[in-house]
Amino acid sequence: MQLKCNYTRELTMKSLTIRNIPDQVYEKLTGLARRNKRSLQKQIQMVLERESHLGETSCISEARVLRDRFSGREWGDIVKDIRKERER
Questions:
Q1: How far is CA 25 from CA 21, 28, 29, 30, 44, in A?
Q2: Mean of the pLDDT values across residues 34-45?
Q3: Which of 25, 30, 43, 80 is most deeply buried (CB count within 10 A of its CB)?
């Protein structure tokens, strides 16, 4: 028995046109692209991709939540506790 899969997926990328970019912003983007050895197009894609993930939970924001939750607790001196245990 032979199974054939005729499923093909067409990948399409969206286009975006941005007008009236201030000169200062354009210069910063081109400088950033140059420093990263990327084309301006690729640099802008990278910036947009990075910014699109900002709303997602990151390790840093999770650490802040934990720090806030544990703030005010009394923490012992771990080094002191380990030395005490070793001396027993």
A1: 7, 5, 6, 9, 11
A2: 95
A3: 43
Helix (H), strand (E), coil (C) string for the chain: CCCCCCCCCCCCCCCCCCCCCCHHHHHHHHHHHHHCCCCHHHHHHHHHHHHHCCCCCCHHHHHHHHHHHHCCCCCCCHHHHHHHHHHC
Cα 35 off chain centre by? 20
Q: How many CA atoms lie within 13 A of 42 on its CB side?
A: 7
The angle formed by the CA atoms of residues 42, 46 and 49, to the nearest 5 degrees, is 135
The overall pTM is greater than 0.70: no
Give the number of other Cβ atoms within 10 Å of residue 29's Cβ.
Answer: 15
